[in-house]
Amino acid sequence: MCLILGVMLRLAWVTEQTRSARFAIAAPQLQARVGAGSLDLQEEAKKLSEEVQHLRAENTKMESSISTQTGSTKVLNEQLQETKAFAGLTEVEGPGLMVTLRDSSKAPMAFQNEQIIHDGDVLRVVNELWNAGAEAVAVNGHRVVTTTSVRCVGSTILINNTPIASPVAIRAIGEADTMQGALNLPGGVLAEIRSIDPSMVQLTPVKAMRLPAFSGSTTHRLLKVPAPPK
Fold it and tell me: Are residue 134 and residue 33 in the same domain, yes or no?
């Protein structure tokens, strides 16, 4: 059995040397089928090779695109963060000035209303800080943005519709000396308050402060970005 099996394997084994000889003695129909099969395999191999080259080229393009996109994404992210900081939508830090406004502790005067800090006092100080180069402002922990409202309801000051009480701490990131000089101008925004009671105003330069992000709604009902011109 082993001998017979060995002979059969020897006869069936095809090598480079026996392939040509066997092909020559094969029937014409078989030769045609083998030849056609060889041509089909060659065409398939050629197609596969071209497909591999195409995929490799596409992979190279994708790698280049990913590399470029990574750089573009980084730039876009940096611009986004700058825009958010400018709009007050992210927490920021830096040196600046803290302005503390508080109601007078003196005995009531004839014009007692003047001894109380009002919304107008806060607004004038905030505007002067912006004018003096402030880059970010917060009032009692509420970030001041384009939609921020400062108003009085009775004797209560509302910042973004949130009531705050005296003392009012206005913190601004920027050049402390410049902002302090602007607030201390003769006849400036603080001069009138100081004429009532100097203790109602306190200016404190700060080497490093952190202002919170705006926490109110950013949804608009009517505002929309116009479509680019065609």
Answer: no
